[in-house]
Amino acid sequence: MGEERIELEKLNIVLFQSLAVLFSAYIVSLFKDAEYTSQTIAILYLLHFVAFYISNIAYRFYSRGYLDELFQVLKYNVFFAVGITFTSFMLDGVFSISRRGMIYFFLLIRFLSILWISCSRGTGSLFHHDGKVRERSF
Questions:
Q1: What CA–CA distance (Å, rounded) separates 47 from 26?
Q2: Nearest Cα residue to 106 out of 82, 80, 87
Q3: d(Cα 105, Cα 107) in Å, to the nearest integer?
Q4: How confident is the model at residue 121 (pLDDT cuts 50, 70, 90)?
């Protein structure tokens, strides 16, 4: 039963983050010089799933601290950026993203993911990883 629950939580995390990927790609496609087409967005969506499972970003999602969170996010971003770069190189005419578009895309994904993390974990745990409200002592 515990293994099924872990897989269900991973699925929940990947689906909510994939919504952030889709929304970010759609917003970036509205920019003036963006080359995002529906095919580009679909490839980004698939690359997100690959980067998600390779980086194992869902590991201890609800209980990790600040540095572990930073490390997991950086690892995911590196895998995602390498996947985008490699796919852009291999599918030269079909899939291409400018550097500026990729930076905007990553910034929007992180912003939306931070919002989702703060809502899913509770606002207190965004600042204190154990979820306890601490009073300041002077």
A1: 16
A2: 80
A3: 6
A4: low
Helices (H), 30-137: 38-55, 66-90, 99-121, 123-127
Task: Give the helix/strand (H/E) hosting 26.
Answer: helix 2-29
**Amino acid in position 34:** A
The two three-digit tokens of residue 100, written as one number:
């500026």
HSE-CB of 3 using CA atoms within 13 angstroms = 0
Check: CB of residue 21 under 8 Å from CB of residue 44: yes
Cα 51 to Cα 1, 45, 72, 76, 128, distances in angstroms: 27, 10, 11, 6, 28
* Contact between residue 111 and residue 59 where contact means Cβ atoms under 8 Å apart: no
pLDDT tens for 26-84 read: 888 887 777 778 888 888 899 999 999 898 888 877 777 778 878 888 888 889 889 98
Q: What pTM was estimated for this model as a whole?
A: 0.73
For residues 106 and 128, give the distance between their C-alpha atoms in angstroms, rounded to a whole number.
25
Cα distance between residue 92 and residue 77, in whole Å: 22
Inter-helix orientation angle 2-29/99-121, to 10°: 140
